Amino acid sequence: MTLKEFIIMGGWAMWPLMIFSVATVSLIVERAMSLLLADLKVKDIHDRVLTSIDAGNVSGAAGMLEEAPKKKIGAAIFLAGLKVFSLGETRMEKAMEAEAAERIGRLESGFSLLVALGSIAPITGFLGTVSGMIGAFKSIANAADVNAQLVAGGIFEALITTAFGLAIAIVAITGYNIFAHVVDRFAAQVEVAGSDLITRLLMHRDSDRV
Fold this sequence. Notes:
Layout: H1 3-10, H2 14-37, H3 43-54, H4 58-67, H5 73-83, H6 89-107, H7 111-142, H8 148-209
């Protein structure tokens, strides 16, 4: 059976499902490439910044973060806090939280669409199945000679859209869960590292006053 024959057999619902499938695969590929290209490692830059701060070189730590590659998202978040170091702990926390929210929001771009596709696709498939079943039973009602082949053939055609819709939903929801786990883990690491960074900065400032 060719793809064209498969689509025709599934009925009208196969056309929106084909669009959903293309959108799902495209979105997953785009998000996967985006997350792979972004450097979500936090520990390396965090350790280097703390070493510089412990050595009393806060400006050097800020300079190192400024020189970090743009794909190093953690560096941009920490730099936002260091820039307002002189304004106190609360301002540093707010600056890093705002930068982290913006950066994480970019990483999560398209996640809601994946969830929507994972919800709409099986519903569309089920609607196509119901429509197909109505047509199948209508054919059975109008047939002079009803046999098992006629019944099974109509049900087979009707169930194609449900299977296709569920397949799309599985791919979309699986992709979403994997991506969400990666971003959530990064967010947790940034939160811990940011809190540690602020503590070290305040300790350094207090020791200088003493």
